[in-house]
Structures are given as C-alpha cells and as structure tokens.
Amino acid sequence: MPTTTPALTTLDVTIRAMHDGDLWGMGWSGTPGHVKQLADQLTRARAGVADYLVACLPSGQVIGKGGVDYEPIPGAGALWQFAVLEPLRSCGIGSALIRECERRIQGRGLRRAEIDVEEDNPRARLLYERLGYVAYGRKVSSWDDELPDGTVTRIETTCVLLRKDLTC
Ligand SMILES: CC(C)(COP(=O)(O)OP(=O)(O)OC[C@H]1O[C@@H](n2cnc3c(N)ncnc32)[C@H](O)[C@@H]1OP(=O)(O)O)[C@@H](O)C(=O)NCCC(=O)NCCS
C-alpha cells in the first residue's frame, strides 16, 4: 500500500522570466523544432514584444513554461506555448503561470488576454474556461515543425480562440 508523506506533497515553485541558461533543459517541453525556436522567443522577450516565463523548483529545474506575445493582437496579450512537465501536471502550475502572464499583460496597461487551443486538446480548453476564458471563434493554423528524427513536417490544425477581459 503506497503511503504519502505530508512534507513531500508541497511544491515550492518560483515563476520568473526564462533566460538563456534555461534552454539546455527544455527538451521535455516539445519537439526539437519547438525547443530550437525558444531562443528566438527569448530574443523577442529582450526586445520587449513578448514575455516568456518559467516555473522552477528550488533546485532550479524548470518544470513549466509559457508566455505572452504582444505582437499578433493589437490591444491584447496573446498567451501561448504553455507546457508543464508531465508528472507535475494537475498541481496548479499551469494556472499559476497563466495568472502571472495575466499580471504582466495588465502591467502593460492592456485589458484583454487571448489564447488559442487546438480542438483536440479538451483538457487544456477546460482549464482555460475555468480560469475565465470564453470561446469566440475558430481558426486554422499551420506551421513547420522539426521532429525527433530530424525531418520537418507541416502541421495543420484547427484552434478554438478564447479571450478574457482582465478588467473584471
Ligand atoms: C495544459 C497544461 C499546461 C496545464 O498545466 P497544469 O499544471 O496541469 O495546470 P493546472 O494544474 O493549473 O490545472 C490543470 C488541472 O489541475 C487541476 N488543479 C488546479 N490546481 C490544482 C491543485 N492545486 N491541486 C490539484 N489539482 C489542481 C485543475 O482543476 C485541472 O484539472 P484537470 O486535470 O481535470 O484538467 C498542461 O496540462 C500541459 O503541459 N499539457 C500539455 C501541453 C499542452 O496541451 N499545452 C497547452 C497548449 S494550448
């Protein structure tokens, strides 16, 4: 019979901006193509057009990530690229990252957050709806992605568009 030690059930998680030193340890968070483009997102964050955050354990290990892109939607922050290390999902880390992103959006004087979620990701959509996001449309997205075997493939998917008024 497994036992649970109370002291081991609390996660001490810090949320901060991602930096270059985090990149080597991000292999868990997506395809090789995704991990490669994280460096470009850090360049964009330094230029002020995005925020890219990580959730870390006291050891410094990154266990979650996600950010805000300020360029695609005038007047709003577009939340994107959220992922939490699989064994640590459903502990509130994704919600904490999203709330910090919302604070960053408000800190820039913007009043709306938006997020896209693929139609075949109902669990993520339910999480966003629980956090106050409301669906208002759909769009087809496509991009090239590098797979673990080095091949590049075209991904095409339909996303649900959700938004949240941050003034409430
Ligand atoms: C989507 C994702 C980032 C959410 O991260 P997360 O850390 O699991 O999110 P949270 O823990 O805040 O909330 C998710 C679940 O935990 C529950 N939860 C929230 N806080 C909790 C807590 N303190 N204790 C226990 N459960 C909690 C939520 O109710 C939700 O329930 P569900 O498991 O039925 O969905 C994560 O699941 C993930 O990496 N998924 C794969 C990549 C992906 O789909 N990214 C989204 C692209 S749009």
- The quaternary state of the protein chains shown equals single chain
CATH hierarchy: architecture: 3-Layer(aba) Sandwich
Count of runs of 4 or more consecutive helical residues: 3
Low-confidence stretches: none
Strand runs, count: 7
User: What is the CATH topology?
Assistant: Aminopeptidase
Give an overview in words.
The relative contact order is 0.15. The model has no long low-confidence stretch (mean pLDDT 93). The protein has a seven-stranded mixed β-sheet with strand order 1-2-3-4-5-7-6, sandwiched between helices. It is of the alpha+beta class and 168 residues long. The protein has a single domain, classed as Gcn5-related N-acetyltransferase (GNAT) (Aminopeptidase), CATH 3.40.630. It has three helices and seven strands. Helices cover 23% and strands 36% of the residues. Helix 2 links the parallel strand 4 (77-84) and strand 5 (112-118). The protein has helices spanning 32-46, 93-107, 122-130, and strands at residues 14-17, 50-56, 62-69, 77-84, 112-118, 134-146, 152-165. The longest helix is centred in the N-terminal third of the chain and has 15 residues, at 32-46. It is globular and about 50 Å long. The structure holds coenzyme A. Coenzyme A (COA) is lined by residues 82-84, 89-95, 117, 121, 123-124, 126-127.
